[in-house]
Design goal:
- Helix content is 27%, strand content 29%.
- The protein has 421 residues and is of the alpha/beta class.
- It folds into three domains: 71 residues, Archaeosine Trna-guanine Transglycosylase, Chain: A, domain 4 (Roll); 116 residues, Transcription Regulator spoIIAA (2-Layer Sandwich), CATH 3.30.750; 191 residues, Rossmann fold (3-Layer(aba) Sandwich).
- The radius of gyration is 23 Å and the shape is globular.
- The relative contact order is 0.09.
Length: 421
């Protein structure tokens, strides 16, 4: 195996089990005898040693500022049962959380939830890998070439360790490094059950529904964003349900209507769902019809968020509860300044439209924007509008999106629930 030797004193973070090796920490690369190229292939397993030759771990090589993502520490090669052991450990965590199916006396216990994140990258000690489970289907996303290379081994381990999974879909066309030399398909079925294989149109997921806290959602993992749904807002959606009774609710950036469905079940007087994507709005309407076929108090609109808020304000429209869950305004640190201006602007518009005594749920999923910067942007928005605001809740990602204690960068979702006088 190719061996990476670090510069002196650059091994300390690995000894603290941080899973990244930065390119600037590398002193030299010693290729094994099989190599014809001058450097390892992207996605290749490499061993990492200190300058003194101490074994630090083994991980996937990649081109970029993060040169190695460590899979196992203090070893020179992965054990034969590595993938099954990691998948098994992650699944046991989800069982402990009450999210996954459990077996008692060989009888499967059914639950009102069959939707959860099985693997959350570094949070489950598998950097570069995301796996979401929707009923009997697992959706795999690789964020590194190494995980792409191992996709079939990962699929086999999921089938062996997660009883409810019968289908496995691979969706990495938007997540793999753009210029990476990737062999094989970036998207498509890795495992198909008889139900999936019988579909005439393999590009459709219309027949597949999943359940979250008793609500049914059609998950379009084929064409939707991420793996098809934003599981990370599950607990925060439930909190919206607690506040929604008898309120006029606006769900901005609604995607497929998660917050809207919870608000409707919570007894909202009216719910307006807004997203720039007409495809998302179509799915909102399908989900509402499935769960609340008699509902007449829901409206879904395809519109730009800023334009919609400006037009509604001009008409004197106000709300009791507004949810702002925008896509990441900053995907890298160079964009943070512009992102913070965007957060301030959208929150100012929302705060203006909240009735006295109303509630604002506001979020940032930009990993590059830290909690303090996001809070400052929201508070600046409140000051700009001249409203008195109190924090009721500080929100974050749920338990099935765990944060590796040695990798604090994994804390990405930030949210505030505000009471607006």
């Amino acid at each position: 195996m190719t061996t990476i030797f670090l510069k002196p004193h650059k091994e300390e973070s690995l000894k603290r089990f941080h899973p990244w090796v930065f390119s600037g920490a590398i002193a030299r690369v010693v290729l094994d005898a099989t190599h014809k190229a001058a450097s390892p292939e992207e996605g290749e397993l490499v061993a990492v040693r200190s300058a003194a030759g101490e074994t630090l771990g083994v991980g996937h090589w990649q081109v970029g500022s993060i040169a190695v993502r460590i899979l196992a520490f203090r070893v020179e090669e992965l054990p034969a049962d590595f993938w099954r052991e990691r998948i098994r450990a992650a699944y046991q965590v989800r069982q402990t959380l009450g999210l996954a199916e459990v077996r008692r006396d060989d009888v499967r216990c059914t639950k009102e939830n069959n939707t959860f994140r099985l693997i959350h990258g570094e949070g489950d000690f598998l950097p570069g890998l995301i796996v979401d489970v929707y009923a009997e289907t697992a959706v795999i996303q690789a964020h590194s070439v190494g995980m792409h290379v191992c996709r079939n081994e990962i699929a086999e381990a999921i089938l062996a360790e997660v009883p409810q999974v019968q289908n496995i879909y691979y969706k990495s066309d938007d997540t793999l490094p753009f210029k990476a030399p990737v062999e094989g398909e970036k998207t498509g079925w890795l495992v198909e059950s008889q139900k999936t294989a019988s579909l005439k149109d393999k590009s459709r997921s219309d027949e597949f529904w999943s359940v979250e806290n008793g609500l049914s959602f059609r998950i379009d993992w084929l064409r939707g964003q991420k793996t098809g749904f934003f599981i990370d807002q599950r607990e925060n959606r439930a909190l919206v349900e607690r506040y929604a009774k008898d309120k006029d609710v606006l769900n901005m950036f609604c995607y497929t209507g998660g917050f809207s469905l919870y608000a409707l079940r919570g007894g909202a007087k009216t719910v307006d769902s807004v997203d720039v994507s007409q495809k998302a709005i179509d799915l909102v309407n399908i989900n509402v019809a499935r769960n609340f076929p008699e509902a007449t108090n829901h409206t879904a609109v395809a519109a730009d968020a800023f334009e919609y808020l400006t037009a509604q304000k001009a008409q004197g429209r106000t709300y009791d509860l507004i949810i702002l869950d925008p896509p990441a305004f900053a995907k890298h640190r160079d964009a943070v300044k512009n992102a913070l201006r965007g957060y301030q602007r959208i929150n100012a518009k929302a705060i203006e439209m909240i009735r006295p005594g109303g509630i604002l749920f506001t979020f940032s999923c930009s990993q590059a924007v830290d909690k303090e910067a996001f809070r400052l942007a929201v508070f600046s928005a409140a000051a700009q509008v001249g409203r008195k605001v109190r924090i009721l809740h500080q929100l974050h990602q749920p338990q099935d999106h765990p944060i590796n204690i040695y990798h604090p960068e994994g804390e990405y979702l930030k949210g505030l629930v505000l009471y607006v006088e």
